[in-house]
Design a protein that fits this description.
3 helices, 29% helix, 203 residues, 3-stranded antiparallel beta sheet
Length: 203
């Protein structure tokens, strides 16, 4: 019988460490902090791919006196060497900004899109375009306005090696949310590919 000892350890507050966060006690900022924590969890799940089975990244509520606060935690089996290594790797590669959108393959303990190609079309050209690749897919994130405009709406596309659109999302208020959605879409496509490959081998 294998021994397990699951523990949960904090890897940060409700946002990347150089970003402003909703502070505790929250008061009327409780919902804002909750949404911010969920957004951060989604970002980290897109940032760290191929996690060991059983290891999870999640939001946690921590009671404190008459109040409490949210943080983001990694739950892992401290008796499993692969879990311990993954936790240390995650903790060592946490993002500093919402715009820090590198992707890391935890199973290989390395960055998988280190060469992010980003190009900005200056005004008066009404577009801002960011491009990066994850394995066989390319993510395109863009807006029809200057990226600093408060009312800029962002769009993301995921295209395959034949430049065919596999998934798309539109009318997103924040660039960071746009990247998170696109990266999650790529992860879903990669998981579907793996399932197809398994099915092909079994048939």
């Amino acid at each position: 019988m294998l021994l397990t000892d699951y523990v949960s350890e904090s890897v940060g507050s409700t946002a990347p460490y150089d970003e402003k966060v909703a502070q505790a006690p929250y008061g009327d900022k409780h919902d804002e902090a909750l949404n911010e924590a969920d957004r951060f969890v989604a970002m980290l799940k897109g940032r760290f791919i191929n996690l060991p089975d059983g290891l999870s990244i999640r939001r946690a509520w921590n009671p404190y006196d008459t109040f409490g606060y949210y943080d983001v935690q990694v739950r892992y089996d401290s008796m499993d060497d692969s879990h311990n290594r993954a936790f240390i790797f995650i903790e060592s590669n946490m993002p500093s900004r919402w715009s820090d959108l590198e992707v890391y393959d935890v199973s290989q303990e390395k960055q998988v899109n280190a060469n992010v190609q980003r190009g900005c079309f200056p005004d008066p050209s009404p577009a801002t375009l960011f491009v990066t690749s994850i394995q066989s897919f390319t993510i395109k994130v863009y807006t029809d306005k200057h990226m600093l405009d408060s009312d800029a709406q962002w769009t993301w596309e995921v295209v395959d090696s034949n430049d065919r659109i596999c998934d798309i999302g539109c009318n997103i208020d924040h660039e960071g949310d746009c990247w998170i959605a696109a990266i999650n879409a790529v992860n879903s496509l990669l998981n579907a590919q793996q399932e197809d490959n398994r099915s092909t081998k079994l048939s």
